[in-house]
């Protein structure tokens, strides 16, 4: 499944004194099976953009196409769009509301009008996907779980609709290092199992580790797009935008400044280790 | 021995009587002007410790004294909270007033500072955190980092000796985190403010004087950042991260490259220059 | 996006009316209500309306904005007007509609009652349009503080209002986000009958309440850490002070009441 944004502009409260354009003329495509990272400052329009992917927001100008069909055209089933493109908001655990975990996860499938049996199967499958044991969790109140567990339940609530594309807004925000790592592994696992993933993230280190492609937003516009190698090759541009770059990129920039022949485009730790080791061995060779 | 701001002696704390201990026989001394970081995963007891240190919670066993005053002594309660202010995690849930400068005034009003004295103290506090131009704004229109700086100003106006930061950057984006941390570092350096920095971001602890790693209510590791972060395996066992450069250094050492004492990018640059030339 | 929501309907401007002491403005509102009720005939409303028009002009609030305050009341207004028109007693028939006869006295009284309601609303609107909610809260607290003697919690009430004002935008924003998140899971807030719609609100209201309670807990802790311990021994950043204009306004109001009483007698 492919999502295409064509010249999408979104203005909040147009015509009012509070009018504000959040994204402007954005063209981008989410390709099937990719892990796309959306990067940018708070207020750069990432979240607004994400809400266009499943039709929650309607572009003020431009079109959003799902497999070539305009999702805001008459005759396009919005519910089906929202099923296909699952959107997980920031701090999704703040949207839990049911008495039990199972009921909460079942909310989506029920809204799809699925039978009780099918719903139950979906709930089991979704909880399993987020690494929670159905028998342990199903009857517990979602409000007595730990923060990390609550977030998993919330994500299961979206997965239970069997989306083809999963859009996550800052899925690791506010978690401690261990839960963070588990959350990222979980998302990476979903991607490997065939889901298309779009992840909004502030952490360039996470983008470097997991994304297959990244789009950089600045002031409502998509200013860079490409594989992490390409994006991080322009680490200086990211820095100029006030964005973080992976620590390894910072190291590369600094080493080259100091005149060491550290290769460009290195952004993963293992690559940096290899590069440093070969520099070191060369150095020893000269002595 | 320098002046002690906090003196935590063998403190244990349980939320309910007879319930599990969130903090167990913990001792900690904090001298004036120190910048100490307390690390730990969620549920390790680090937030509880912070709340014990300004009398929001009272120890089940042991004692906590702030500038020589025992937190259990009720007549010192307000004095202690003036000396040891606190900034919390959620920037939205600690601002009270609808205008920034009135929020900064909130603490002053509570402790009965005369009206004539307030504007000066408010201006000063807002200047110290670089928020002067936002004095007349509504808090809900500010960014997370700005809200936290307003919260700091609200505490600063009360002229505290120390501020406890209870995961004050956990909900901020990287820019907001940098903003807040650099403001706090400056306050520590320039005003000699004592800082207790509670966090689960390892990198934020790199520059501080001392690091305490908590695990199930106890201090599991302590020392200078370099000492603590060198113990990668111990940290991993406590389910914590190691700063990326320390991790890279470890990988390099395992491959035989003798890098030493690396925490930050600059350390690694220094070592690379030393070894690769 | 509720970023720019202004609560209530405060219209920020620099004017003499805005600058009046909130305590005086509240008193003036009470007095204007007295004047409205003292008006014994339609003629006596003329000075009241003139006063309102003058106050509105001096406040620089657009008349359209003031009138808008009546919008939510339009059904009640029309309904009570018609009810009065048909059911009030009278002697002089004016118009025979077949199913009912409209009497002259009934018409006059209906207009009178409707006018009374309209003026009440307009005067209160003018107060909220020209006074920021925080200032209003301040004024109320000071006015009610003498009641502390009989254990009326004036300070606590004012603090509650301030906190409500501070958190309403935050909670609105949160409500918007939760609604979107549930919509993303296929929830439908817009269609169906009343019961179905009420049921559809559960996934919105439960998280909203949970969050409000969490915030309340956090805030209570933060307030305690900042030495909040009730109104006792508290000083204030802003001290309210009556000025010349406040007394002038009070004088004008006195004059208005005198006019109203006079006109009510004369007729």
Write the SSE topology.
The complex is a heterotrimer of chains A (287), B (277) and C (267).
Chain A: E1 3-12, E2 20-30, E3 35-39, H1 46-53, E4 61-66, E5 69-70, H2 78-84, E6 85-88, H3 101-111, H4 116-129, H5 134-137, H6 147-159, E7 165-169, H7 177-192, E8 196-200, H8 204-210, E9 213-218, E10 221-226, H9 228-233, H10 235-240, H11 247-257, H12 269-286
Parallel strand pairs in A: 3-8, 3-9, 6-7, 7-8
Antiparallel strand pairs in A: 1-2, 1-4, 4-5, 9-10
Chain B: E1 4-14, E2 21-31, E3 35-39, H1 46-52, E4 61-66, E5 69-70, H2 77-83, E6 84-87, H3 100-110, H4 118-128, H5 144-156, E7 162-166, H6 174-191, E8 194-199, E9 210-215, E10 218-223, H7 225-229, H8 232-237, H9 244-254, H10 265-276
Parallel strand pairs in B: 3-8, 3-9, 6-7, 7-8
Antiparallel strand pairs in B: 1-2, 1-4, 4-5, 9-10
Helix pairs in contact in B: 3-4, 3-5, 4-5, 5-6
Chain C: H1 16-19, H2 22-38, H3 45-59, H4 63-68, H5 74-87, E1 93-96, E2 101-103, H6 104-130, H7 133-144, H8 154-184, H9 194-200, H10 202-225, H11 244-266
Antiparallel strand pairs in C: 1-2
Helix pairs in contact in C: 2-6, 2-7, 2-11, 3-6, 3-11, 5-6, 7-8, 8-10
Notes on the protein architecture:
With 287 residues, chain A is an alpha/beta fold. Chain A is 42% helix and 21% strand. Chain A has helices at residues 46-53, 78-84, 101-111, 116-129, 134-137, 147-159, 177-192, 204-210, 228-233, 235-240, 247-257, 269-286; strands at 3-12, 20-30, 35-39, 61-66, 69-70, 85-88, 165-169, 196-200, 213-218, 221-226. The model of chain A has no long low-confidence stretch (mean pLDDT 92). By secondary structure, chain B is α/β, with parallel strands linked by helices. Chain B has a single domain, classed as P-loop containing nucleotide triphosphate hydrolases (Rossmann fold), CATH 3.40.50. Chain B has helices at 46-52, 77-83, 100-110, 118-128, 144-156, 174-191, 225-229, 232-237, 244-254, 265-276, and strands at residues 4-14, 21-31, 35-39, 61-66, 69-70, 84-87, 162-166, 194-199, 210-215, 218-223. In chain B, the strands form 2 sheets. Chain B has a 6-stranded mixed sheet with strand order 6-7-8-3-9-10, with helices on both faces. Chain B is globular and about 65 Å long. In chain B, 55% of the residues are buried. Chain C has 267 residues and is mainly alpha-helical. Helices cover 67% and strands 3% of the residues of chain C. Chain C has a two-stranded antiparallel sheet. Chain C is flat and about 70 Å long. The model of chain C is unreliable at 1-7 (pLDDT under 50). Chain A binds chain C through residues 12-13, 17-18, 20, 51, 54, 56, 79, 82-83, 86-87, 89, 92, 94-98, 107-108, 111-112, 143, 157-158, 161, and chain C through 1, 3-4, 174, 177-178, 180-188, 202-203, 206-207, 210-211.
């Amino acid at each position: 499944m492919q999502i295409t944004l064509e010249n999408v502009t979104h203005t909040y409260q147009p015509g009012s004194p509070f009018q504000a354009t959040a994204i402007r003329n954005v063209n981008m495509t989410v390709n099937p099976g990719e892990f796309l990272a959306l990067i940018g400052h708070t207020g750069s329009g990432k979240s607004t953009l994400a809400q266009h992917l499943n039709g929650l927001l309607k572009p003020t100008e431009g079109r959003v196409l799902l497999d070539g069909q305009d999702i805001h055209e008459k005759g396009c089933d919005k519910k089906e769009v929202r099923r296909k493109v699952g959107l997980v908001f920031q701090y999704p655990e703040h949207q839990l509301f049911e008495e039990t975990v199972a009921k909460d996860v079942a909310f989506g499938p029920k809204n799809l009008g699925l039978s009780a049996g099918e719903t139950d199967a979906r709930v089991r499958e979704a909880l399993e996907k987020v690494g929670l044991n159905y028998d342990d969790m199903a009857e517990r109140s979602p409000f007595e779980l730990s923060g990390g567990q609550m977030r998993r339940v919330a994500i299961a609530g979206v997965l239970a609709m069997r989306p083809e594309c999963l859009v996550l807004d800052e899925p690791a925000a506010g978690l401690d290092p261990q839960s963070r790592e588990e959350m990222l592994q979980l998302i990476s696992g979903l991607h490997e199992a065939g889901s298309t993933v779009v992840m909004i993230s502030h952490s360039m280190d996470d983008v470097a580790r997991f994304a297959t492609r990244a789009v950089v937003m600045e002031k409502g516009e998509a200013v860079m797009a490409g594989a992490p190698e390409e994006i991080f090759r322009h680490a200086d541009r990211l820095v100029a935008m006030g964005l973080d770059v992976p620590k390894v990129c910072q190291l590369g920039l600094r080493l080259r400044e100091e005149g060491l022949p550290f290769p460009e485009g290195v952004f993963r730790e293992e690559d940096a280790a290899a590069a440093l080791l070969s520099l070191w061995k060369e150095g020893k060779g000269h002595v | 021995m320098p002046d002690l701001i906090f003196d935590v002696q063998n403190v244990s704390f349980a939320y309910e009587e007879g319930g599990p201990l969130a903090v167990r026989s913990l001792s900690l001394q904090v001298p004036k002007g120190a910048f100490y970081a307390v690390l730990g995963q969620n549920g390790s007891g680090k937030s509880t410790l912070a709340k014990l240190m300004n009398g929001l919670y009272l120890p089940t066993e042991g004692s906590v004294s702030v500038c020589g005053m025992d937190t259990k002594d009720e007549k010192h309660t307000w004095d202690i909270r003036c000396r040891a202010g606190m900034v919390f995690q959620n920037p939205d849930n600690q601002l009270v007033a609808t205008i920034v400068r009135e929020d900064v005034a909130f603490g002053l009003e509570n402790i009965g500072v005369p009206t004539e004295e307030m504007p000066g103290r408010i201006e000063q506090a807002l200047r110290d955190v670089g928020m002067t131009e936002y004095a007349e704004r509504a808090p809900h229109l500010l960014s997370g980092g700005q809200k936290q700086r307003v919260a700091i100003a609200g505490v600063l106006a009360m002229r505290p000796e120390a501020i406890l930061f209870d995961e004050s950057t956990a909900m901020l984006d990287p820019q907001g985190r940098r903003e807040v941390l650099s403001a706090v570092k400056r306050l520590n350096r320039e005003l000699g403010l004592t800082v207790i920095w509670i966090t689960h971001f390892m990198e934020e602890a790199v520059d501080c004087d001392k690091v305490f790693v908590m695990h199930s209510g106890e201090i599991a590791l302590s020392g200078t950042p370099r000492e603590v972060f060198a113990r990668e395996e111990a940290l991993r066992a406590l389910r914590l991260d190691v700063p990326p450069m320390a991790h890279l250094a470890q990988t390099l050492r395992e491959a035989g490259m003798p890098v030493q004492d690396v925490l930050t990018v600059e350390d690694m640059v220094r070592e690379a220059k030393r070894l690769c030339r | 996006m509720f970023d720019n929501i202004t609560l209530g309907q405060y219209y920020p401007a620099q004017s003499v009316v805005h600058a009046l002491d909130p305590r005086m403005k509240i008193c003036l509102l009470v007095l204007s209500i007295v004047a409205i009720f003292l008006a014994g005939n339609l003629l006596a409303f003329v000075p009241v309306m003139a006063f309102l028009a003058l106050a509105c002009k001096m406040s620089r609030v657009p008349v359209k904005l003031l009138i808008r305050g009546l919008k939510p009341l339009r059904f009640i207004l029309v309904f009570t007007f018609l009810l009065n028109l048909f059911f009030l007693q009278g002697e002089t028939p004016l118009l025979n509609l077949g199913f009912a006869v409209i009497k002259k006295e009934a018409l006059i009284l209906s207009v009178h009652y409707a006018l009374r309601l309209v003026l009440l609303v307009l005067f209160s609107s003018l107060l909220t349009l020209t006074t920021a909610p925080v200032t209003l809260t301040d004024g109320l607290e000071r006015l009610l503080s003498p009641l502390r003697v009989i254990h009326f919690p004036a300070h606590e009430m004012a603090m509650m209002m301030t906190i409500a004002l501070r958190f309403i935008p935050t909670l609105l924003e949160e409500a918007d986000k939760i609604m979107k998140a549930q919509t993303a899971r296929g929830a439908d807030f817009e269609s169906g009958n009343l019961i179905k719609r009420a049921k559809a609100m559960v996934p919105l209201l439960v998280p909203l309440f949970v969050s409000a309670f969490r915030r309340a807990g956090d805030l209570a802790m933060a307030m305690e850490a900042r030495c909040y311990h009730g109104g006792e021994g508290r000083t204030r950043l802003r001290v309210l002070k009556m000025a010349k204009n406040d007394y002038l306004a009070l004088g004008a109001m006195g004059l208005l009441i005198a006019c109203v009483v006079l006109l009510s007698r004369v007729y």
